[in-house]
């Protein structure tokens, strides 16, 4: 099973690596989060993300996200209500976006392979720009094994974006990476992301090296 999953991961990521740097930008994204379990059903979480563009040399984006998660309906379902505050550089100036969002995380297993499907509805309240609703759907597949004492677990994922203002799918993200256990309450993640986005009837590719640190209590 390990060999089958690794082979599939290679098949899916080779096209990504082959097209890296052919078009668009190379970026670095870093996300750090902390979560606190209130009881068996409720959890609070906070995360911050910083992004560097222009070949990972220019900081152009940051967000802070505060959320509360309820897991009491079913073992396979988490519901999260959160608020995200975004500042992003556009046309030489920093613009603010306020983004409340509702998330549903569906989890299941098939042949010991873990699947996750995250559905997200967000309202984008943007400075000096149109406000609109956006739907996101991210499907994640995790390997049915963990490697070494760090519990390294490969995964692949794909996320689609649907903007209700233009009524079209205009962004897709393909992920390939792995998670690992650093300490008892600290997990990490390293991934490569291939983002294709449409603007002015043209598709542009962005390739991202991403890292995550997750503290849990």
Summarize the structure.
The chain has 217 residues and is mainly beta. It is 8% helix and 71% strand.
Keywords:
eleven-stranded mixed barrel, 11 strands, Porin, globular, single chain, mainly beta, 1 helix, 217 residues
How would you portray this structure in words?
The longest helix has 18 residues, at 2-19. By secondary structure, this protein is mainly beta. Mean pLDDT is 91; it is low at 14-22. It has one helix and eleven strands. The two termini are 33 Å apart. The chain has a single domain, classed as Porin (Beta Barrel), CATH 2.40.160. The chain has an eleven-stranded mixed barrel.
Q: Which percent band covers the strand fraction?
A: over 45%
What is the N-to-C succession of helices and strands? HEEEEEEEEEEE
Q: Strand tally, please?
A: 11
What CATH architecture do you see?
Answer: Beta Barrel
Question: Could you describe the largest sheet, including whether it forms a barrel?
Answer: 11 strands, mixed, barrel
The overall average pLDDT, rounded, is 91
Topology-level CATH name: Porin
Q: Give me the Rg, rounded.
A: 18 Å
CATH class membership: Mainly Beta
Tell me the count of domains: 1
| Basic shape | globular
Stretches where pLDDT is under 50 for at least 5 consecutive residues are: 14-22
**Tally of contiguous helical segments:** 1
Structural class label: mainly beta
* Percent helix: under 10%
Distance between the termini: 33 Å
